[in-house]
Amino acid sequence: MLKRLLDYNDGEEFDLVLMIKNSQLRHTKNDKLFLVLQFSDSSGEIRGNFWDATNQDAATFSTGSIVEVNGKREEYQGRPQIKIYSMRVVGPDEGYDLSQFVKSAPEKIPDMKEEINKYVFEILNPTWTRIVRYLLKKWDKCFFDYPAGKSNHHAVRGGLAFHTLSMLRDAKGLADNYTQVNRSLLYAGCILHDMGKVLELTGPAATQYTPAGNMVGHLVLIDEQIMLAAQELKLDLDSEDLLLLRHMVLSHHGKFEYGSPKLPQLLEAELLHRIDDLDAAVYAITNALQHTEKGTFTEPIMSQDGRRFYRPKDDQALDNSRHLE
Amino acid sequence: MLKRLLDYNDGEEFDLVLMIKNSQLRHTKNDKLFLVLQFSDSSGEIRGNFWDATNQDAATFSTGSIVEVNGKREEYQGRPQIKIYSMRVVGPDEGYDLSQFVKSAPEKIPDMKEEINKYVFEILNPTWTRIVRYLLKKWDKCFFDYPAGKSNHHAVRGGLAFHTLSMLRDAKGLADNYTQVNRSLLYAGCILHDMGKVLELTGPAATQYTPAGNMVGHLVLIDEQIMLAAQELKLDLDSEDLLLLRHMVLSHHGKFEYGSPKLPQLLEAELLHRIDDLDAAVYAITNALQHTEKGTFTEPIMSQDGRRFYRPKDDQALDNSRHLE
Amino acid sequence: MLKRLLDYNDGEEFDLVLMIKNSQLRHTKNDKLFLVLQFSDSSGEIRGNFWDATNQDAATFSTGSIVEVNGKREEYQGRPQIKIYSMRVVGPDEGYDLSQFVKSAPEKIPDMKEEINKYVFEILNPTWTRIVRYLLKKWDKCFFDYPAGKSNHHAVRGGLAFHTLSMLRDAKGLADNYTQVNRSLLYAGCILHDMGKVLELTGPAATQYTPAGNMVGHLVLIDEQIMLAAQELKLDLDSEDLLLLRHMVLSHHGKFEYGSPKLPQLLEAELLHRIDDLDAAVYAITNALQHTEKGTFTEPIMSQDGRRFYRPKDDQALDNSRHLE
Amino acid sequence: MLKRLLDYNDGEEFDLVLMIKNSQLRHTKNDKLFLVLQFSDSSGEIRGNFWDATNQDAATFSTGSIVEVNGKREEYQGRPQIKIYSMRVVGPDEGYDLSQFVKSAPEKIPDMKEEINKYVFEILNPTWTRIVRYLLKKWDKCFFDYPAGKSNHHAVRGGLAFHTLSMLRDAKGLADNYTQVNRSLLYAGCILHDMGKVLELTGPAATQYTPAGNMVGHLVLIDEQIMLAAQELKLDLDSEDLLLLRHMVLSHHGKFEYGSPKLPQLLEAELLHRIDDLDAAVYAITNALQHTEKGTFTEPIMSQDGRRFYRPKDDQALDNSRHLE
Amino acid sequence: MLKRLLDYNDGEEFDLVLMIKNSQLRHTKNDKLFLVLQFSDSSGEIRGNFWDATNQDAATFSTGSIVEVNGKREEYQGRPQIKIYSMRVVGPDEGYDLSQFVKSAPEKIPDMKEEINKYVFEILNPTWTRIVRYLLKKWDKCFFDYPAGKSNHHAVRGGLAFHTLSMLRDAKGLADNYTQVNRSLLYAGCILHDMGKVLELTGPAATQYTPAGNMVGHLVLIDEQIMLAAQELKLDLDSEDLLLLRHMVLSHHGKFEYGSPKLPQLLEAELLHRIDDLDAAVYAITNALQHTEKGTFTEPIMSQDGRRFYRPKDDQALDNSRHLE
Amino acid sequence: MLKRLLDYNDGEEFDLVLMIKNSQLRHTKNDKLFLVLQFSDSSGEIRGNFWDATNQDAATFSTGSIVEVNGKREEYQGRPQIKIYSMRVVGPDEGYDLSQFVKSAPEKIPDMKEEINKYVFEILNPTWTRIVRYLLKKWDKCFFDYPAGKSNHHAVRGGLAFHTLSMLRDAKGLADNYTQVNRSLLYAGCILHDMGKVLELTGPAATQYTPAGNMVGHLVLIDEQIMLAAQELKLDLDSEDLLLLRHMVLSHHGKFEYGSPKLPQLLEAELLHRIDDLDAAVYAITNALQHTEKGTFTEPIMSQDGRRFYRPKDDQALDNSRHLE
């Protein structure tokens, strides 16, 4: 296997194709311009400065560009950086794709697809299963490629599917304990709840919000998709089954201030909201702990009210778990 | 013209067909049952007690029933009430309809329809005008019949159209002052913003929320209607024009806690929200002041944070204005 | 098996020993006194009025008394009530105990004890296992007898243990999915988190808060118990293991306004809080739905922000589940 | 007409008298001092650095100074800046005044004065009209010269009068639609509501809060002015008319947290608050949109809860409107 | 000394002149009207029912009337009540005054006046002392007669002066400990802070808010008084001393939501706010504890966030303290 | 007496042993590293830059190091700084201790100890006096050495005792005015309330939170200490006296969001909370005012909701008061 960006050690030179994840033009006090660049590939990210830049360079080496970099890994103030020897933009016909330069979820896409399909088989209600299958098919490519968010959690390639799958596993445990739960409705809700993100976000690399994401949002976007699908499938637009499913996705943020137009009013909607929130929290906390030394606290985690979490000195379970980002 | 309920004076007897707007079974301390009934017709409401009731009577004379009442208007503790001589349920074949017994908005439906249509002519954008005309036609009967709410404001027959029209008049004044406003978008937003109430509410009489009203809400319900209409009309589902219109209706409550999944992000969406809120406030305050003596404060108005409003001693403008409810 | 209070039908007469769960002295408009009594045994509760009461009767038949009632079940305004023929207080030597007259959790105490012990075996850390075993033994009788609360959720005999056990089952599912979790710490936290309620509450019948419950609260009460136990067991009072366990119980309400002096700062503390909250919510929602007709909404559930929950028309899973209260 | 600061193009040299709107002393990494200066005249602002400064220079070229600058306009990182050749402070006897160097409201002061006076004529109540005329006369010069705020909105010369006038126009539209409104009271409230800013702020150039502005605030400052005027005019200090007018100005911020000691308790006070808030919002949003490219979002607008607003791709109305700042 | 209302025992008959503190017309289930009356004199309050009332009786025996009652004290459900034999309205020429029938503060008015005057002597600043003396003289009668509030705390005759004096004592202790405090300013603030209540409230008996109280409020009312006094005294209206004093009274509620238009921005203003709040809290808590049995909790105290306070079993200090209400 | 850091004037050279209170590695634009150092001794702090640093230097001259500095005091942009000639780390055997380099409270430790002991003598209840004496003895050294906080207030050596003593003085004044207060309980609460800070903080120099401070907090830490002491002293663990004392310390932050697991439910607990908060506020405001010029506002004080406080032009009392930090 080819060496990737993070496989190089201090002092080693390399020639790699990388994505510019972020590019900012700055100037020194004596008015020289330079670019602060964040390079990434699927192994992670390192920063580097491009000195004596021109305004032209800033336009050429912009955020989201794919470049071939000839350089060296160095240590600077305890953090790695790249000393750039030369750099050129890779052309569209050279066969590279942005999504190659993004970190991926810790499980393989075909495996996730297969396991999610097993849950689909357990959705017994005909309205819900037809809509779930229709939309899974319609958005298949994006659904298994997109992240679940821009930065907070599961912001990796395949993160949307990984988040969905992890929630389905939680849902199974809870439905086993609480037999009063409608398992079909809960599974259908898990699968669809964030699928609107394929319309809300621009994709897995250099992820941004689309105008529809900003002005409609993924809760209503998937609700619209459900209605349009129901019309295509000639389902009864006024049926209670359809209403329950719409309510699941529309209420899953659980609080008005997070953009839910309605609060959960079904036992299964309440569970969907809680599983969603729990899975995101576990991901964000784990990710922060994995970047923290034992016996110390993480940086404040913004998605968790700015709390810092403590990594105990004796911490075997976390040690043995796979790295998220 | 026939005398209606509020046309009778103390001591006068009558024989009238009325709606039971509210019916509650209570019992005296010595365990006799009686019904507390709120009677109404299009002139207003009066309360009356039906003594020595049975459980059967409670089922017969339930909320929403139409009854013929033989009785007398009395004064009791400073408030009018009905002394019931006899009462019978009116059959479905006697030609009465619930909506006859409800108060109506202070302007005539044909007049409102005509004036609203004038505003439709000023919507110049082809996407918006086609959707507005399509939905106005689809929901024509309900739109001019329904109230704008269950109780807070414009809770009268035709209240939805009256609220819409009053907002359009405000919108015109503001668009004249602020020339930077897209008048077409603002008018289209005014007309559609509350149209989802035809799906959220059960109708003008004995108004309740539908399950879809409770679990989806009129903001998303009209958004769904816009999308389904666009599909029927074969409009581009991804166009910016369609997005702007959806954003107008989805953000018009202006705050997350009032069920807007998105906050206004267009100048016109901000104005739509403010006009909506202002028109509702003016209605609620005016209605309360009209039931308050000069030189005193109203009861706390719940929709206005429980504030009491003062009716000045010298108050000609209010005196001369038409009565709302 | 003997017939209990709820086993009688309308019109049937009975002679039963019952607990007075609540007693209130009221007076009729013509100044006659009467007692409004809530009777209960382990099958449930029915209300009845004791007419022509004296102040002496009010003192005799007070909340928490055990009485022998000779009476008849009647229907009144659609709800059952007891017509009292005669009633006498049962003496302390007649062998009755308050806790007999309280509803019990839906699982048997020996079964729950056995299953909880299985989880104790999976706590591998020596500090945590010693403290858990010490306190489970010290409070054994109360822990399996007390409710988990005064009224909100699990307000039944054995409710504390049932809530604990249900949480352990949820914890197992989550620890299986999230391998980074320290399973021992999470289980120890689940078992101890609400054990302070044996000091906070007065017991399973006519449950009230103790002064220590009001002025210290069960979070700090169990923390104090842990420290005193550690001193008794001659454990290191400054060890990190002890600190982590204290943090688990002190932070488990998850929000300052619910009385947590600290917010969760461990991944396991975050999970403990969420499992606790989730199990209480599922219980409260399920209990409300079980008292609601299909196709309608529950009364507002206070512990869930006053939300009403909808019971779908087709609701097999809930139909088939055991009744909670 | 003379060329002003923003009339020069890149590379052009000039000799202009300008105001230093902001001056900050900084130092380079090798400990050389320099001044970062914001220059302005009535055409707008440009930034420039004054290199090799001394502490003496910092004192000389301080915020609010008027200077003659000999320099050249340059392009730097996509934004204009001034390269300073030489600079000297203009003496007090050279006939310059700070207010010359400030941007002005988009309407002419005499026009605004004339239009406002037309509204004064419609105030029919003798108490209100006398106080309005007295205070308009007393503060005439400042009222038509001051901005309406330090930075949020209408922060231009004449902004206070422009904001007042724009509100009067809105008020007229609303009073036409809602005939129950006391037009005299509403107009009087519009004219006086922000007049206290002539005491709260230091003036149109380099605007700061006065101690009285910080410690009393413009709502109470104008209320005090009304009382002192009433005493001077020998009006009845206890009349209801005077009370209503005081309530209008004291409640116009509409929320306690914005410094209103009382919430609106008059229909007209409610409208005054809403018109004030609406006019400020329209100004701030329009100003932000005018600095934003089509098809993109503005920067977060702090006065609007940090929301970003979208400027549609097709945006004729905004294009054709006059520029605010 | 004459026996007062609370000096009579159960079963004793009396003939007394009393105030009707509250009068409400109710009706029995069989539609007989009766009045529920709260009688009071300076010893306290007892309730009584006036049976078979007419609408005329309700108008005659209204809230705030002075009546001669011939009746008997009885015990009813553990609480005293009056059985009314006969009752007549006392004429204006019979020499009674409402304020005779109100409870008084626990210290004598002349004593309080003398002690407050000692504090006035310690106000050394000429502006503050002249205004304090002017307003103390202008409002002398009301200031020592009015309560400090309608119901929350110090709602007794002379309560305003008692609250003021108690705060001055606290202020002295704090100024002794914190020598950085401007004692003159703090004392002047204490004396004036609530003096606006003489305009906000109707008086010591049957206390209501005036329209000016509702629409301007006592903070701004005293600020206006200070300005008018300054004008009368020909003081400099723009002096910093005057500004500091105005800020003291305007900010003394300490929070916007309690109607302070400005938050404290002086050390002395911060202290004034805290002393005011503390004295009110001590009064309300003490009053509630004095009506509570040892070893139990008070009813929720609304002014203290609805908290219940505990009265310890061993509670000598409270036992020995004077009763407040 | 030896000259200390702040005793030197601009241009004077010195050779002093100082603590590095804060050390940060930065780099110039041309990639040279330097250290920004905050030096302190008991007279205060001055900043200095260490140029041409290496990563090794950063490790050597880290936060909390004691160093001998040969340098010169200079003026730079109006603020003092140190020009460093040479610098070396002082060895552990040279007899210096971190706490020598920290500012101290403005009163002497022996004086404070003596005065606090006088208050201890006034605690008459045997349970409270035994626990107070036991814990004062156990933590004697730390209690008179530690600060009361990391930065907000009393962040000086001996600050904890100074804060405690100042509160006792306030408590005395209030207990004199309010005779209903249990003086013993209030004094015991004052002395113990913050004693948990000896476990929460690391000490007087370079103060940090301990893990127990972060995860348990000083309220519960002192509660645990009280319980362990009671066990050692063989006091009744269930006594009401013990419960009252625990409640005092557990509720003293007065609000849930400040980490109180219970809100004050005793009159004395309410007073303790208010005295604590008041003393901290007076300290923080005074400290800020002492660093502010007359006639201007302080920087926003974070602990006081970000308010700025005004220092009046005529401000004798503050002038004459001792400097806090």
UniProtKB/TrEMBL annotation, chains A, B, C, D, E, F:
Gene3D superfamilies: Hypothetical protein af1432, Nucleic acid-binding proteins. It holds the Pfam family HD. Signal peptide: none annotated. This is HD domain-containing protein. Residues 29-90 form the OB domain. One of its GO terms (molecular function) is nucleic acid binding. Residues 301-325 are annotated as: Disordered. GO terms for biological process: rRNA 3'-end processing. It comes from the Bacteria. SUPFAM superfamilies: HD-domain/PDEase-like (SSF109604), Nucleic acid-binding proteins (SSF50249). Keywords: Exonuclease, Hydrolase, Nuclease. The keyword Nucleotide-binding does not apply. Residues 305-325 have a biased composition (Basic and acidic residues). PANTHER family: 3'-5' EXORIBONUCLEASE YHAM (PTHR37294:SF1). Coiled coil: none annotated. It comes from Lactobacillus xujianguonis. Residues 163-280 form the HD domain. InterPro entries: HD/PDEase_dom, HD_domain, NA-bd_OB-fold, NA-bd_OB_tRNA, YhaM_exoribonuc/phosphodiest.
